[in-house]
Write a structure and sequence with these properties.
Number of strands: 11
Strand order of the largest sheet: 3-9-2-10-1-11
Structural class: alpha/beta
Radius of gyration: 23 Å
């Protein structure tokens, strides 16, 4: 009996030791040379936890998820997207091309709402704490993002709420497209197969500012003009204008969409986890207008052929690469893993571009 007991104990010890070895093996940094950083796709809402529990060493996401980690001290910013790409476009307003062509007035009304709401956001932020509108703005942001008011306040310090697609913005979109080609995400052959001569020709076609220009003449309507199915990103304060526009308390009992004659339908009120999923909704004819990052809009339009038109800018800047407090510099991420919203997102493109600039290679974990 004693001998049998000893044998059982020996087996238990072996199992424990093997379990520990396996856990160490799957969580330890992988030595793949002195310039390789790994990535894995994790939604921004889950990146804070992944960094905190050691699943990844860093993450790249949009606001307020960046500030959520910064405010509580669980991570720090290694580099802000605005430092690498000053005044870069981030989120845009896009419409299914067929819908826009058939409903130009509705699209212009959507843009009018976007412009009025964006102006209200920037004016309210400039007024600062202590004003009634500022309190309403922070509360609306906290409710939508499910984050504290202090996190929302910190997040808005890193976002520029610009709406106009200027020549400088178009230049950035061309640069993003050319970076797709350089990184192998899109090929020149694909651009040509879609009927475009080059990246500049593609951007000039996917961007249409006529709806934006027409929005200047749009007035409030006493009746509902039409219905628009709307999509947006989960908890994304880059798209604060949409949050504000849907808040009927801010506008005296009606949403701003209703004031301008639009019946907005949102089938996915929690939002989409990333821009590529918004593009999938466009492709499935599930939404008519969407807020999403410019890169996934362009990448899916080229690689998949999803027919959308970019009709307005939503914001500039507002993303960052953050890391746990054991990481002092970007170079410390070699042989470690960074969470991104997924290939095609502007945050993923930012990580790849910054790493390339600094002389590092980024590959999928386990590839």
């Amino acid at each position: 009996m004693e001998k049998k007991t000893m044998m059982i104990l020996a087996v238990v010890v072996v199992v424990i030791v093997l379990g520990g070895v396996m856990a160490w093996y799957f969580t330890k940094p992988v030595d793949n040379g002195d310039n390789t950083i790994f990535y894995t796709a994790i939604p921004p809402a889950q990146q804070k936890q992944a960094i905190s529990n050691g699943t990844v060493s860093a993450g790249v996401s949009w606001e307020p998820y960046v500030s959520d980690s910064l405010v509580d001290g669980s991570a720090h910013a290694l580099v802000w997207s605005g430092d690498f790409w000053p005044n870069h476009p981030c989120c845009v307003v896009a419409a299914r091309t067929g819908f826009a062509e058939s409903n130009p007035d509705l699209v212009s009304r959507m843009i009018k709402v976007h412009l009025v709401a964006s102006d209200w956001v920037t004016t309210t932020l400039s007024e600062g704490p202590g004003t009634e509108n500022y309190t309403k703005l922070m509360e609306a942001g906290a409710t939508f993002s499910n984050r504290g008011v202090n996190v929302v306040e910190n997040a808005t310090m890193h976002i520029l709420y610009e709406t106009d697609i200027t020549p400088a913005v178009e230049d950035y979109l061309v640069q993003f497209t050319e970076k797709f080609v350089e990184l192998g995400i899109v090929t020149n052959a694909t651009i040509e197969q879609r009927g475009y001569e080059n990246a500049t020709d593609f951007v000039s076609n996917i961007v249409d500012t006529t709806y934006y220009d027409a929005a200047a003449d749009i007035q409030p309507s006493e009746t509902i003009v039409g219905t628009v199915r709307l999509g947006y990103l989960t908890g994304d304060l880059h798209q604060f204008a949409r949050v504000v526009a849907m808040d009927d308390d801010i506008w005296g009992g009606k949403s701003l969409y209703e004031i301008y004659g639009i019946d907005v339908q949102v089938d996915n009120p929690a939002g989409f986890a990333n821009g590529p999923l918004v593009m999938d909704a466009f492709a499935a004819n599930a939404i008519d207008v969407g807020y999403l990052g410019a890169p996934p809009a362009m990448q899916k339009a080229l690689n998949v052929g999803t027919d959308i038109t970019i009709v307005a800018l939503a914001n500039e800047e507002g993303s960052a690469i953050i890391a746990n407090n054991d990481i002092d510099s970007f170079g410390d991420l070699v042989n470690r893993t960074v969470a991104t919203p997924g290939p095609g997102s502007i945050q993923h493109l930012f990580l790849l571009s910054y790493a390339e600039e600094e002389g590092y290679n980024v590959i999928l974990k386990g590839a």
